[in-house]
Amino acid sequence: MKTLSYLALFLLGLGLTACSSNEQHLNEHHPETVEKSPVKLEAAPEEGHEGHHHEDWSYQGETGPEHWAELEKTSDCGGMHQSPINIVEYKTDETLPPLDIQYADQTVLHDVVNNGHSIQYDFEEGDYIVLEGEKYYLKQFHFHEPSEHTIEGVRYPLEMHLVHANKEGDIAVLAVMAKEGGQSAPFDFLEAYLPLEPGAKKEIGKPFDMNLNLPKDRSYYHYTGSLTTPPCSENVQWYVFKTPIDISLKQAKVLEENMPVHNYRNEQPVNDRIVKASPNF
């Protein structure tokens, strides 16, 4: 009997060791099973597009925006509160405060990546905005050409999205329109790291003052919506600046040549949402 008991314990030990080994092997090849970030960032498959999603969405043809809800069956792409929208009907709300934007002039711009859908610049932690007393940290910014949001039917040549997230994974995006005008020194700095082939990444590791890419007039439109790319999550607070910044035609062309043609999603129904406009600041 003792021999049988020792044998049973020995076999049980082998089984536990094998399970532990298999679990370690699984985690090595699928690290997302160990720790998942709660943040689902826009236009960043390498940063938080969690869950099972179709990898072949695009901006054209059978995998274009009109088909995202079919391709991304577990997404919110067919939801009622989607983005972008045409900002044409809105209510001025005098109680909306100026945006509390805390961008330092020495926050490190970590890298730039061509993720196949846009050109995206990733920040190290430091810059943030404060919404209702809570900090939302700037994670990345990227571009759409032409703009995704339209203002009273006007589509601008370029739109920049500054994507922020709080500790719970809620998202706030500042949208900056750009129009053709004078040469932009901040864009010269950013575009010095281009061209970049799809899937490629370049380290930057230099400080960048994001304030330089914001309009002087900080008045904005505000509404609740979604990411504008799959999984189209409907947990986004949008702040669309009323006033565009200027970039040169040459600078717009550099970005255009590094991104898919017309990487924008068409306007979505507003449905039951109310768009608010801040007073002029």
Automatic annotation (TrEMBL):
Superkingdom in the source lineage: Bacteria
Location of the region described as Disordered in the Swiss-Prot/TrEMBL record: 25-62
Signal sequence interval, chain numbering: 1-20
EC number: 4.2.1.1
Keyword list, A-Z: Lyase, Metal-binding, Signal, Zinc
Biased amino acid composition, Basic and acidic residues: 25-39, 46-57
Function of the protein: Reversible hydration of carbon dioxide.
Family the entry assigns: Belongs to the alpha-carbonic anhydrase family.
Entry protein name: Carbonic anhydrase
Gene that this sequence comes from: cah
